[in-house]
Request: fold
Amino acid sequence: MTIPILILAAGASTRMKGRDKLLEDVHGRPLLRHVTRRAVATGCPVMVALPAGNQTRRKLLEGLGVTILEVMDAESGMAASLRAGLGALPVEATGLLVALADMPDVNTDDYLCLINVFLNDLEANIHRAASADGIAGNPVLLPRWALTDPSVFTGDAGARHLLRQHAERVRLVPLPDTHAITDLDTPQDWAAWRSQN
Reply:
């Protein structure tokens, strides 16, 4: 079964006071390359949604063998990237693992954990990563049926409306520590994260 990974990397980093968070250094690599390498290591097909024309981010992905999706209307919100991912989804895909590019702690084993749980679920539920103590976070693995819900593809909420609407079909998958809830949006977030890593 094919489970592509879609990395949402088309945001504008508006809360970073002029810096691009996806270029920030993580263990010697820019964040976007760090996150993408971990996804590629799963062996799954990886798609990365980028804002159209952003050559700086595009160069970070050279040599990784990923499919780059240029999102023409990235400023309209996260749904634009989801639409791009759906448009490139292989026919044989049974689901789509949606990951955020600003989460440095999610690793290859975390992706594989979500995928394995999903593949062993005969009911094809939505699987959402959570912290070790059960706080819902990201990534989220959406089964094929969920990708037909039009609410996923409007605005900047991404899959949040879908997760609320089908709450009874959402299964939390605990990942180690705070992997699933550590996202870095502001300089303060980065400073706090670096102080502990």
Q: What stands out?
A: DSSP finds six helices and nine strands in the chain. The beta strands are 5-8, 25-26, 29-30, 46-51, 67-71, 95-100, 126-130, 136-143, 170-174.
